[in-house]
Amino acid sequence: MYDAQTLRYFLTAFEVGSFTRAAEALGVTQPSVSAAILKLEARYDGRLFERSRQGLKPTRKGQELYVQLAPVLAQLDRIEGRMLQKAPEVLRIFCQPDILLAPYAAALQALQRARWDLSLQFCDAADQSDIAFVSEECLPPRFRFFPTRRETYGLAVPQQHAFALQEEIFPERLTQEPLIGRPYCPNADLFLRNMAEQAGRADQAELEVRERFAPVADAVHDHQVLDLVRAGVGIALVPKDHVAGVTGIKFVRLAGQTPQRQIGVAVRKSAHAHGLAQDLVQALISALPQQPDAS
Asked: What is the model's pTM?
C-alpha cells in the first residue's frame, strides 16, 4: 500500500481534473503528481484516468478508488488532529446569494485535503468573512478581488415554455410574462436600465419600464429561482452557467442585450485572512477555467 501522500495526489487530481492544477493546489511539481498516479495505476493494474487536452476523466476503476479512499483519508486527518490536539484554524466564508457554489466544490475539497486542520465556516455577510465569493461590483471594502470568470446573463425559461423553442428573445416581448425577481442581485435589472438608455429616455421612462416588468414573485437565492422556473411559476434573468445541466430549464439569449458580470474570490486585506485564504485562492484559481463565458 502506498503512503497517504501518494493517495492525496490521486484525490486532488480526481477533484480538480488536471495533474497540473492538482500540483498547484498541493504545492508540488506536476511530474510528482503524474508519477504518483502512474505508480497507483501499475499497482491496481489499470488506468485510473483517461487523459486528454480537456483534462482528466476518471475511469470506472478511478471512480471506485475515489469513493473508497476519500472517507478513509478524511478519517485519518481527524485522527491526526485529535492526537496532536491542535485546534483547527477557522476560515470564514461568504457566498453571494446569486452565485452557485457548485463550480467551486472541487477546489474546496482539494483545500480540505491539503489543510486538514482548517475549519470552513459560512457567514451571512461579506464584511464578516475572511474570503467571499462575489461579483466585482459587490466587492466589500478592504478586500482584494481575484477574478475567476465572466458570466453572461439571459433568460431561464421552463422547457415547455414557448420561448424555449427560440434561441433569442427581444426584451420588449417580456412585458406580458411573469418574471421571478432577484432583488438581492445588482445585475438583475441591468437589461431594464439598458432599455431605457438605448431609448434615450429619462428616469421616469425607466420607472415605467420597471413597472411593466413587475415580478410575480421574489426569490431569496438563485437555487430558489431555478426551482420556481422549473415549476412554471415564471421566467428569470440569470447567468448562463446557472442553467447548464439543469433539467427542465432552457437558456435563451436576449436580443440586443448582453448583461455581464465578473465573478471571483474576494480576500480580506489582513494578515490573518491572507494567510488562511492563500491556499484556497490558489486552489480556486488552479481548479476553475479562466476563459470568459461564451454568450
From this structure: 0.65
